[in-house]
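Quick one:
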Amino acid sequence: SLKKLKEIGDIAICNQNLGEIKLAENKYDESINFNNKAIIIFKKDNDEEGLSQCYNNIGDCYRGKGNNKLALEYYIKSIAIAEKISNKETLAQAYKSVSEINQEGKKYEDALTYFQKYKYLSDTIFNAEKNNLSAKIGAEYESDKTQKEISLLQKEQDLNTREIKSKQTVQAALLGFMAVLCALLIFIFRNFKIKQKSNISLEQKNKEIEYQKLEITSSIEYSKNIQSAILPERELILELLPESFVLYQPKDIVSGDFFVCIESNEKIYLAAADCTGHGVPGALMSMIGSNILNRLIIDKNIFDPAEILNQLNKELNHSLKQNKNNTNDGMDIALCVISKSDKQLQYAGAYRPLWYFDNDEFKEIRGSRFAIGGNQTAGERNYQSHTVTLTDKMQFYIFTDGYADQFGVEGYK
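Output:
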């Protein structure tokens, strides 16, 4: 094909096809070469659809070679053109690839954003294909039904004609009997078809509902993997605090609760937080809160837990634009900073307390009586730090209210 097309000078599509074949064979450099040849012609012809697909193919090649940085540049070029011309298929491929690269690079918010774009487009493409298929099946079914009815009526007419000619003496009675019989058969047949059609429609709807449920559950399961990546590994916690445990059991796959364990500047930072909402909304809030908290501790090197909560409150309020959109989302949190060298524990909380036992005597330090985030005026919140001197026989507990305050579960109030 390439030899013939060279004679007329139209080889762009052929080069693109050869590039896709080389990509499938993992011959990335050859694929990039063919796609670049196609790009030169597509640019000359102003063929934006071809350009978008070629950029996407080159992105796949660099990703296969392990160069995610170059791959991301070509995917972004492909997305810019595909969005302009509404090329949904290419756009969905590029969104998915960019989401996976961001996930590999631990840019989880960007990964989630592009995955949601990919999911929306893939659902749109699927629904369009499903509607076209349904229309085609319906037309074929109606045509077949009509043909069968015509054939049945023709056979009945031939039978009546032969009987009329051979049995003239019983013509009136026989015609009357056949008319009643035909009416009864048609009535039964129509009822059967109506019931059959209803059953098929109901079965199809049930399948669609089940598929949608599966897709939603699959998306949430994928979101669980992203959320799990922001949580500290249990091995790290046990390494820093050997005599410790974490109870974390999300009720709805993903959770509005999260916990933090960070070692920085010879201090151990521990937090247990409960975000507004449950399931997916709560999980999104937990990712925002965890990201801000990690940045305040690691990047800004804030040591005082009360100051960390003050900054967390301001940045969450700013990130969610709560002073403009009147939303009241936020979180409750207990935060501890342990200094092993000084044998001291500093605590600050927003609605969440610190419990501890000192020589088997139970003690409680209550958190401040206002949450992190939500509608507020400047200067109305100021969190307080509390210091506890550590001894060998002390036990400390921080927690959310997720275990105790369960709704709709028998035995809980």
